[in-house]
Amino acid sequence: MYREYPVPGATTVGIACKDGVILAAEKRVTYGYLLLSKTGKKIFKLTDRIGAACAGLIGDMQTLVREASAYASIYALERRRPISVGAMAKLIANLLFERRLFPLITQTIIGGVDIEGSHVYVLDPLGSVIPDKYASVGSGAEIATGILEAEYKDDLTIEQGKNLALRSIKAAVARDIQSGDGVDFLIITADGSREESIDFK
Questions:
Q1: Distance between the two ends of the chain, CA-based, in angstroms?
Q2: What distance in Å separates the CA atoms of residue 80 and residue 36, rounded to the nearest whole number?
Q3: Is pLDDT at 4 greater than 70 in this prediction?
Q4: How does pLDDT run across 128-152, given as a tens digit for each residue?
Q5: Residue 22 to residues 47, 53, 80, 102, 186, Cα–Cα distance (Å)
Q6: Confidence category of residue 178, pLDDT binned at 50, 70, 90
Q7: CATH code at 12-198
Q8: CB of 23 within 8 A of CB of 188?
Q9: pLDDT tens across 6-40, in order?
């Protein structure tokens, strides 16, 4: 008998700003109707100026990020320059496509800054790569995207982008039972990256 397994929900956002990129994800980890954790981490630093924000199975996210980070380090050692955001997105797309028969259950947003500026890419579990200025994935994506569509502008500063990401995730958390408990941010600029966190009371 076929049994359908629940896929964890999430709300994850990526926004390209004029001076950097904001990646944000809420913290709730669920399995069906079971709340597994209120402190799950769904954003990851891949290099000093590139990060990933994911929705799906935490173990699959961690596997993908570890492998991609290792390849990025090898690239930097061999080429003597850091990998570009587009090349990192293509690398992760190849890793996902290799596993297409037994896919990693994760939707991924890659964001970062390189010599060509700020970039955001969206990848599905089979490795398609879609460049965009902003994106949201996960069970709360439809709600978050509505806020992003209405309020995104090309000349957003990092602080404005962070506030927009927070508003979009809060809107999704209010309506999506699988999202909640706070927001983790990865803020990436030409000077490097930093992480911030906000808990919801």
A1: 42
A2: 42
A3: no
A4: 999 999 999 999 999 999 999 999 9
A5: 15, 10, 27, 31, 6
A6: confident
A7: 3.60.20.10
A8: yes
A9: 667 799 999 999 999 999 999 999 887 788 899 99
58-111: pLDDT as tens digits: 999 999 999 999 999 999 999 999 999 999 999 999 999 999 999 999 999 999
Q: How far apart (Å, rounded) are the C-alpha atoms in residues 138 and 142? A: 8
Q: How many other C-beta atoms are found inside a 10 Å radius of the C-beta of residue 34?
A: 9
CA–CA distances in Å: residue 128 to residues 74, 84, 96, 145: 23, 18, 9, 19
Determine the Cα–Cα distance for residues 57 and 73; give it in Å rounded to an integer: 25
The H-assigned helical ranges of 18-126 are 58-79, 85-98
For 171, list phi and psi in degrees, rounded to 5. -65, -40
> Alpha carbon of 161 to those of 6, 16, 31, 134, 180: distances in Å?
32, 8, 30, 10, 20
Dihedral class, residue 32 (left if φ above 0, else alpha if ψ from -120 to 50, else beta): left
Active site residue 39: no
The catalytic residue among 11, 47, 106, 145 is 11
What phi and psi, each to the nearest 5 degrees, are found at residue 33?
Answer: -95, 5
Q: How far apart are CA 109 and CA 121, in angstroms?
A: 6
